[in-house]
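We emphasize that the prediction below concerns an isolated chain of 204 residues; any contacts that depend on oligomerization or on bound cofactors are therefore not represented. The input was used exactly as deposited, without trimming of termini.
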Amino acid sequence: MSLTPGARLFLTVLLFYAGWVKFTFDGTDVYLADYAQRLVILALGFQALRAGFTPPWPRGPERVWTLAALGTLAIMMADMFTQGLAWREAFDNLLFAGVSFPDPPGPAWARVDLTFGLLLVAASEELVFRKLWADWWAGRRGRTDGMLYLGSTLAFACLHLPQGLADTAIAGLWGLLLMAVYRKSGSLPLVVMIHYLVDLWYFA
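Result of the prediction step, given as a token string:
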């Protein structure tokens, strides 16, 4: 499918938000709908995905890895130490009670979700909210990095609104960090790897 960078970005972001409907499903249907949605998004952005994996790793200075490591540690610690605090719980449910995926129906399904499922999450979200967004932004006149970070981070953070306001804010921090790492490294595999390992830490 031949789409302009702007049209591809708009369509894939729209598909992400349309995926909220999965939270009305029951049991394993939630997972199946999520997997299907992300596979469609990856198919729509396949050319960009393939291009993003060449070269696979950043060839730049080591400070990119330092930024990734220190940024990841800082956000994980902030998230971990505020879990369960009264003010965070109140903020999280300020507008509505958050929703989440049901527990996997068994150990085999859990293993599939922690491997295949989380890889789909990381690859699809980094493809759209980092690479496709940066590719589209590069072709705009009068662009500024600040607006690139703001737009992509807001879109990525608000995707997590069903999980509550606190989780949305944490997602915004991840969005800022991952865009910074992507912009400095030019490596889609690096941000996919970070995203996957962080999600594995959250859900394992």
